[in-house]
Amino acid sequence: MLNCIDNSGASIVECVANLRMKRHAKIGDRIIVVVQKQRSFGEGAGPGGGGAASAQGGNKVRRGDIRHAIVVRTAKKLQRKDGSVVRFDDNACVLINKAGEPIGSRVNGVVGAELRDKQWSKILSLAPMHL
Predict the structure, then answer these.
(1) 46 pLDDT above the threshold of 60
(2) DSSP string of 59-105?
């Protein structure tokens, strides 16, 4: 289970496949996820609220959707070339489409600087801070 830190509409996602064909995904790896929990946006997002217009308002993904994602934070320690060790509090990802463009227009929270090495500069530019 990973937190989804963009504004695509997903809150919690579950990893079902790692496209790197290794055992564990690291920062910058592309994975396939299933949306487990949806974020609620605004007043019309609740039950009985505004119909089809509010359903499409902020949520670009729905519960049960299968999407591609990029891992941006891992709880596993990662040693960098300069000898420093980085460890985050949680596992987090950003949802992308098949072409590799982020689905959301904002990223909430810190992302790992290893995204620069793997050419995910679009995600780095959307993030408020990277470590």
Answers:
(1) no
(2) -SS-TT-EEEEEEEE-SS-EE-TTS-EE--SS-EEEEE-TTS-BSSS
The residue with tokens 């790896």 is: 29
pLDDT of residue 55: 46
Q: β-pairing, 78-79 with 10-18?
A: unpaired
2-to-20, 32, 44, 72 alpha-carbon distances in Å: 17, 12, 26, 10
The vertex-13 CA angle with 120 and 89, nearest 5°, equals: 70
Q: What pLDDT does 58 receive?
A: 66
CA dihedral (113, 28, 1, 94) in degrees, to 10, reads 80
- C-alpha–C-alpha distance, residues 53 and 64, integer Å: 20
How far apart are alpha carbons 114 and 109 in whole angstroms?
Answer: 15
Rounded Cα gap, residues 30 and 20, in angstroms = 7
Reading the block at residue 92, the tokens are 């987090």
Bridge partners, 79 (sequence order): 85
Please spell the DSSP secondary structure of 24-44, one letter per residue. Answer: S--TT-EEEEEEEEEPP-SST
